Request: fold
Amino acid sequence: MDKIVSLAKRRGFVFQSSEIYGGLNGCWDYGPLGVELLRNVKEEWWRAMTYREDVEGIDASILMHPRVWEASGHVENFTDPMVDCKQCKARYRLDVLFEDISLKKKKEVLRELEPEKYQGQQKDEVVENAFAQLSESSPGSLLKALSCPNCGNKGTFTDARKFNLMFKTFVGSVEDSSAAVYLRPETAQGIYVNFLNVQSASRQKLPFGVAQVGKAFRNEINTKNFLFRTREFEQMEMQYFVKPGTDEKWFEYWREQRMEWFVGLGLRKDKLQWHRHEKGKLAHYAKDAYDIEYRFPFGWGEVEGVHNRTDYDLSRHEQFSGKNLKYFDEETKEKFTPFIIETSAGASRSFMAFLVDSYAEEQAPTAEGGTEVRTVLKLHPRLAPTKVAIFPLVNREGMPDVARKIEAELRPHFRVFYDDSGAVGRRYRRQDEAGTPYCITVDSQTLQDQTVTIRERDSMRQERIAIQKLNSYLQHALSETGISIK
Ligand code: GAP
Reply:
């Protein structure tokens, strides 16, 4: 992971937010290459989700009426239990604090709390289970026996308190409770409250979906693992409205589509898995829920959730707004509240999964006939920030003029990069690290027969191709995706 974070900074994918002031925890800035990769992730999602007749797009505002978050359950339920260390003031999410404790420490704590039961050798599994049980049934006693990971003092934790993860701010000039609003913690609610607006404007009939990409904010207590858990991030969410009774079928349909999207854009299948939420641990609104998990260097982590949200959201907004949000089926003359199948992906988490998955270090030949290690981002060409790099082999004999002419021809169609500095081998390496799928080199043969070499990033294979065929060659090579819409 450290290597990827360092490449991300060095090559301008991701910078720490406000770095010159020491950074702001949980916030990141996307640099020149990062912003292109992120835009391409969102663009591919938008294309897959909305270039179809049954899904419309919207872009709702980040600030919404505060009642929205009462109706959604966020005011009441969107909380994490947290504790503070009275000594050093460090703050922890209770579950994360417990999760990060080593097995050795867990054994010690259990022996201290229940000496008769846990003397002698215990199987690891027994210790893990006993600790997990105790953290559910008696977190207070565990807290008394634990030391603060920051200052090392024991028994200095406060009792666990509920901490709402929504960021609060105020509209207008008066900072009182009547002016309080929240930065949205998910984009989904902007879709629910616009359900009838979209339906009547687009004249869609069930089943149909509404998609949105946008920023969401959560005051996470523990931000960690680079872009994985941040306080400001982007979501790519689609809410699919269906007739009750057909929800399970559509749930399966969208599960399949969403997994195919990640695989089609190059994520390795063996690094992806489904995680089903246990019945007892489902969110308050869900009938069924699966996460698509990616195997990051620090372990499996959710990149997208697919949820059967039932009629919870529309019913709640109907109740809280007093407005009728029922759907009228013209064929059957029935009125009912649709069920919702939600696909909710993190754009920033997907970005990170694509970055991690594409990173490789491998042996490559040098001009001197030896080998060297090259770092390469094997990004799917559709996600790659730069599509083509153009090099004159040397800066004389008219080669730069021809290379600049090729650049001018391709630039309106692709994001291209012109590089004439250093040995050509070094220029290839720089583009490998940036994930550029094709490099074109103008050499002495070009001046005679109007052909160039085109080198493919992953295989490093080179072929000669006529300059006039470059555009159509690249159009074809860059248009392929493994995603199909069924
Ligand atoms: N509307 C449902 C919803 O928001 P969620 O599981 O809380 O569900 C959906 O979030 C996705 O948003 C996650 O799978 C993840 O990719 C992304 N996400 C959630 N919290 C995040 C955070 N703090 N930082 C980065 N991405 C986050």
The chain has a mean pLDDT of 93.
